[in-house]
Amino acid sequence: MPLDSLRSLVAGPLLLNQLPKGPHYGILAEFATPADLYHACQRVRDAGFTRWDAHTPFPVHGLEGAMGLRRSPLPWIVLVMGLTGAALGFLLQWWVHVKAYPLVISGKPFNSWPAFIPITFEVGVLFAALGAVLGMLGLNRLPMHHHPLFRSRVFERVTDDAFFISIESWDPRFDSSATRKLLESLGARSVELLES
Amino acid sequence: MAQTEAELLDNPVAGHPTLILRSPDFHAITEVVAGPVEGPTPIGWWLLFLPSLALLGLLGVAVSWLFWEGIGVWGLNVPVGWAWDITNFVFWVGIGHAGTLISAILFLFRQTWRTSINRAAEAMTIFAVMCALTFPGIHVGRVWVAYWMFPLPNQMSMWPNFRSPLLWDVFAVSVYGTVSALFWYVGLIPDLAMMRDRAKTRTRRLVYGIFALGWRGSVRQWHHYESAYLVLAALATPLVLSVHSVVSMDFATSVLPGWHATIFPPYFVAGAIFSGFAMVLTLMVICRVAFHLEHIITLRHFDYMAKIMLVTGTMVGFAYATEFFTAWYSGNPYEIFTFLNRAGGPYAWAYWTMISCNVISPQIFWFKKARTSIPILFLMSIVINIGMWFERFVIIVTSLHRDFLPSAWGYFTPTIWDVSCLLGSFGLFFTMFCLFVRFLPMVATAEVKTVLPQADPHWQPGPERAIRDRGAAPPSRGTHTPAPEGAA
Questions:
Q1: In terms of Cα–Cα distance, which of B316, B238, B249 is closest to B276?
Q2: B125-145: string of b/e by CB count within 10 Å (b at 16+)?
Q3: What pLDDT was estimated at residue B207?
Q4: Which of A87, B41, B95, B304 stands the most exposed, by the fewest C-beta atoms within 10 Å?
């Protein structure tokens, strides 16, 4: 069993972001307010869907919980990158002053580590920040300039004032008519079947 | 309107200060921010852009002449080896710090009022760092070997001295510029997607689309995005404190009286935030008026910024006093002389300009009338930046011009090329800022929308809202419907 959960932890995010094969990408439902979307997300989560997403113009507080998302692993990427950067930063200075170009400057020892702290810190921050940005883009599978959702006209308002749920057609529980009915019963303003 | 904006400041509803006035809906926020970027270029923009571009041209001429002729075209000479160039460098780095304070530190402290101004403040940071990096770059004299500042393998097998604060500075400021640009860009992604989705022409759709990276506002994306944003804020906070500390160590680690002081790092950081907030205020007053953002950049924002300036201005005043006390208490005749010379010597005019602009004049912000009066705020923002420029001038030049041997004493006078470089750097700054407000959304719309009451998934229209809306215009589009009953 632990092996299984490990496999789902590793494979889950990869599978989720693969685009489905088939005539339809899935169903897109629009909701009027963050509150409607929040309650609908809870219901879709409880209905057992796994390959679905919500789309909002701004981060809606608590929606990750309503969708049942795990904590983001990003801070771990940042930690590893930051420590790597700091280590490389220190190593560079140590190598320059001890190995490559040993000079006595203001009577200090070659490995005058207290003087190396500021640059060690700066390089650590640089790597951590790069880790945060590139890690975020990697986890989000960005850049991805083409996506079936962009074919929808109503979806253009996702960055303005519209709130959506999209359920992908390859979700095991997906059924084009039943899923449509579910979303309509949750108060969707409009429901649309998207081609892939 | 039944109430004026100033009165609304006194009437926050039970612990929920209204950050955005007139209760707009989400679409109204999009319109008011994206509108100026999409509409025709206003004449006022050209009136600011063209003079800025002319000054940028002046910078080009001044720097070309400097490269052609050498550092001698400036007024600096022994004993004043650092003058306006390093003054301008420290001044511009300091300006940048308020942007990071607003975007990172206030974010960590959950100060939601920052959302209206953080985008513009971050942009200001980046442009200020660009101006700042110009000066150490051009004052090295032989610019064609400026790459010696970086640890690059070279045919001489020589390496820079990592024990030198000047090299720390190279790393600190360039990392700061890079991290600020990353932070700014990450914040821009959702708004670039907004511009992409609203684009009417193919070119706009393509250009904004490329930089929006295919953002589709997915909660799974927001989830990692918010984590990245929080981490960047947490990284930028110690970074910004380290940067001006390192800048101050350029001076503090020397043996020169007037520079060799342990108070320098906190004193420089406070001064940086002080001057940076003044610059944010200058820019925000202009933007608020020019783009009709009165309900997004409200008097409440100005009120808060004025309070921060009052605090930091008083902190630098305290630091000036501490320097004098330490000089007297040290009993060191050179230290005592340096400070008496600063306040009463040939540069006394500069010292007292600094004191009046930085310590005395901000005390007006004890009064609420001053904190909520646009003309006073605008005037004060300029006065404070003049004062903060003089602070750096006073620290650098007065400490250098009379050193240990009276036979080596001198008096620095700027040349026309010193003046051109300073004015030119303002040209660079305002040119970049004009381009920014013309082509990018200058308010972080995705963040402003989160502070609207209806952004909360548990919000329901109720009596509290009625109180808050009293005297304000009704929502322009009816997208508010109550949550379905019993769907919790």
A1: B316
A2: bbbbbbbbbbbbebbeeeeee
A3: 95
A4: B41
H helix or E strand, kind and range, residue B240: helix B219-252
With 0-12 / 13-18 / 19 or more C-beta atoms within 10 angstroms meaning exposed / middle / buried, residue B157 is: exposed
Q: Do B13 and B60 belong together in one domain? A: no
User: Considering its fold, how many domains does chain B have in total?
Assistant: 2
Quote the CA–CA distance of B83 and B176 in Å, as a whole number.
24
A177: distance to nearest CA of chain B, Å? 23
Q: For chain B, give the mean pLDDT.
A: 87
| B321 and B220 in a common domain | yes
Pairwise CB contact (< 8 Å): A36 & B454 = no
Every domain of chain A and the residues it spans: 24-57+161-196, 74-139
Q: Do B193 and A108 touch (CB under 8 A)?
A: no
Whether residue B294 lies within 8 A of chain A, CB to CB, comes out as no
One domain for residues B15 and B50: no
Residue B376's Cβ-count burial label (10 Å; 0-12, 13-18, 19+) is middle
CA distance A130 to B174: 14
Q: Is residue B403 part of a domain?
A: yes
Measure the CA–CA gap between B37 and B48, rounded to whole angstroms: 16
Residues B325 and B458 reside in one and the same domain? no
Q: What is the pTM of this model?
A: 0.88
Q: Same domain for B469 and B373?
A: no
What domain range is B9 assigned to? 1-22+452-476
- Distance, CA of B235 to CA of B249 (rounded, Å): 21
| A100 at interface of B, judged by CB pairs closer than 8 A | yes
Asked if the C-beta of A121 comes within 8 angstroms of chain B's C-beta atoms, the answer is yes
**Minimum-distance CB partner of A57 among B221, B449, B459:** B449
CB of B319 closer than 8 Å to CB of B474: no
Domain co-membership, B48 together with B143: yes
Check whether residue B9 and residue B54 sit in a common domain: no
For position B70, what pLDDT does the model report?
Answer: 92
For residue B337, give the CATH number of its domain.
1.20.1630.10
Does residue B484 lie within any of the structural domains? Answer: no
Shortest Cα–Cα distance, B277 to chain A (Å): 24
Put simply, the answer to whether B446 touches A58 (Cβ < 8 Å) is yes
Domain A24-57+161-196 architecture:
2-Layer Sandwich (3.30)
Residues of B with CB below 8 A from A189's CB? none
pLDDT tens-digit readout, B270-300: 999 999 999 999 999 998 888 888 888 888 8
Give CA–CA dist B432/A21, Å, rounded.
46
Considering only CA atoms, give the Rg of chain A: 24
Q: What pLDDT, on a 0 to 100 scale, did the predictor assign at position B486?
A: 39
Question: A-chain residues within 8 Å CB-CB of B191?
Answer: 159
Residues B80, B5: one domain? no
Alpha carbon distance B22, B292 (integer Å): 13
ipTM: 0.89
